Structure formats: structure tokens, C-alpha cells
Amino acid sequence: xxxxxxxxxxxxxxxxxxxxxxxMRKFRTLVGELRERxxxxxxxxxNQDEVKLVQRYSRALQERTARLETxxxxxxxxxxxxxxxxxxxxxxxALLEYCEVFKPRINGQSPLAxxxxxxxxxxxxxxxxxxxxxxxxxxLTRYMTDAVQIFSPFESVQQSQLDIVPSTTLVNRNERxxxxxxxxxxxxxxxxxxxxxxxxxxxxxxxxxxxxxxWSWALGKVDRSPTxxxxxEGAGYAFPDxxxxxTPGKRDKxxxxxxxxxxxxxxxxxxxxxxxRQLLIGDFLEKDNSTLSDKRRGQVRDFFGNCLLGTGVxxxxxxxxxxxxxxxxxxxxxxxxxxxxxxxxxxxSHLNFQSEK
Length: 357
Prior knowledge:
The protein is mainly α. Among the domains are: 4-106, no CATH class; 242-355, no CATH class. 47% of the residues lie in helices and 6% in strands. The protein has helices at 21-44, 48-70, 75-106, 133-148, 157-162, 213-220, 251-264, 273-281, 292-308, 338-355; strands spanning 4-9, 12-19, 323-325, 328-330. A hairpin with a 2-residue loop joins strand 1 (4-9) and strand 2 (12-19).
């Protein structure tokens, strides 16, 4: 807060301001020196792809500096602007160092360094063995997660110890001090059912967008115990689970799911995951049975009657016409290309991550 100067308009406190002039002058000097280096680099460097990349970073650095210098911002916005300026500055500096110093050494165009640039950093060896990108990334991810791994503050001390010490070496001599009243029996571990779709594992399918190993690890560490919070009756999801589109065993079923999603994607209403699945299956006609599937079909028909017909939209559940994705149309029963399935799964993954809470 000491480097932030608030601008007042008369007697009104606007909470808007800028960085102090001295701090901004230091930023401007550093940015000017780096942009002069970019200008010299652009005149002498032969790789035009690298020159264009450096020029793009230089323009971005100038724009962020001008925004920080001219706009009136709140203190959090100034902090974000400074972080953005620092990020572009460091990335541009690293790019120039790579192109001018390290890449010529790698290619043998300049002699190797005679002395280390920095003092030696004492750190454990993360990986040993044959070079393998996937294995090296996994080892790096494990090292990073172990460095920041902490226990949940909502866990008891005894529960944290149970995660570390093997069960055969535990002797609990103070059982009366435990929480047996709230935990009468242990929660059994989750076991996958007959379906290949699991909530806590990401599908291994070329149709599903790839994710980082850290995200897969974090998903497996989600607390699966029953939630103590009450879920109100109107809760649901505005978008279906993207795994539904890649886990069916039959390819024609994937096409049916995609067709029905493109038909119903404009519903924009919160429905349960089971209702979304029934919508994607596309079987809505009433039958004389009394199974759970029939009950869900009835819920879908009630949903249509309450949400669609009430707004004047007429929908023939027995005859759904062609659907469109982008500029491509698909007739009912046709095979949806893998490219379209990948795009739908990616869009739903993005929407679920961004919008679903």
C-alpha cells in the first residue's frame, strides 16, 4: 500500500489511484532498457520466427506499461497490473537470454560458459534413468506435490496419523478420546461399478481432452465422504458430464449422445446428472413398465412440459430433426465424426470447469 497513491476528486474518495511516481519511473527505466535490447536483437538476429516473437512480447510489454502508467485503478487492480507486467518482462528476458546466450552454446556457435552464472543450488535428484518425457514429468509432479503437501485443517490429528503409519503398527490406547460417536464404522473405499465411467478418474480415450498429471492426481485425492451439507431440490447441472460422451462402449451410442446434446444444449436449466444422461440417451416415450429408467423418462417428460411447452416451444419427442455443430449438420442416426466428438467434449470440459460450482 505504501507504493500506491490514491487520487481524490474533491471531497469524494474514489479508491482509484496509481503507483507512486518514483516506483513507476523505475519500471519505465527497466522496460526501456529491455525494449532497446529487443530493437538491437531484431536488427541482427537471423531467425525471423524468433524476431517476430520478441517483437510481439516487446509490444505487449509497452502496452502493459502504458496501462499501468495512465489508467486510474483500484489497489487490487494495480497489483494485478504489476504482476502482469512482471510476467511479460520475465518471459521476454528469458526469451532473449535463450536466443542470445544458451541456444548458441547448445548449437556449438559460441564457447561454453567458463564459470557458473549462479551459485550451485542444493536440491535432491528428482529423476534418474533413461530419458522419458512422461516418466520425467510424473517424477517432477510427485516432487512438487510432496513439497507443498499439507494435511487438511478439518482433519483430526489421529486421522492424519492413520494416513502415514501402516495399520499393522498402530496401537490406540486412548480409544475413549476418539470420535467413535461420529464415526461408528469406517467408510469403505470407492469401487468402480459395471460402467467404465468413474467420477474420480479421467477416461483414457483419444476423444477426451488430455489433462496434466497433477490434475489427475488432485482428482483422485478428492474427499469422497458423504457431505454434511443439505442439497436443495432445485440443484443440478447446466451442462452434462463430458465423460458421458466418450465412455460408451459402442460408437453409435456416442453419436446418439452428441446428437441429443446438440438438440437440447439450449435448455439452459439446472437438471440432475441422471436427467442429463436420459436426455442424451434420447428415449423419452412412455412405457408400461415401472423400472427406474421409466421413472427417469417420466421426469424428462415432466421437465419438457414444465420448461419448454410453457414458453410456447413445441417439441415432438418421437421425431427429432437434424442437428448442427458449427457449419456442419447431422441427420438423425448418422455417425458423428471423431473431430466433432472431441470438440464437444472439450467445450463441455471448459464450461463445466468455468461455470459449474
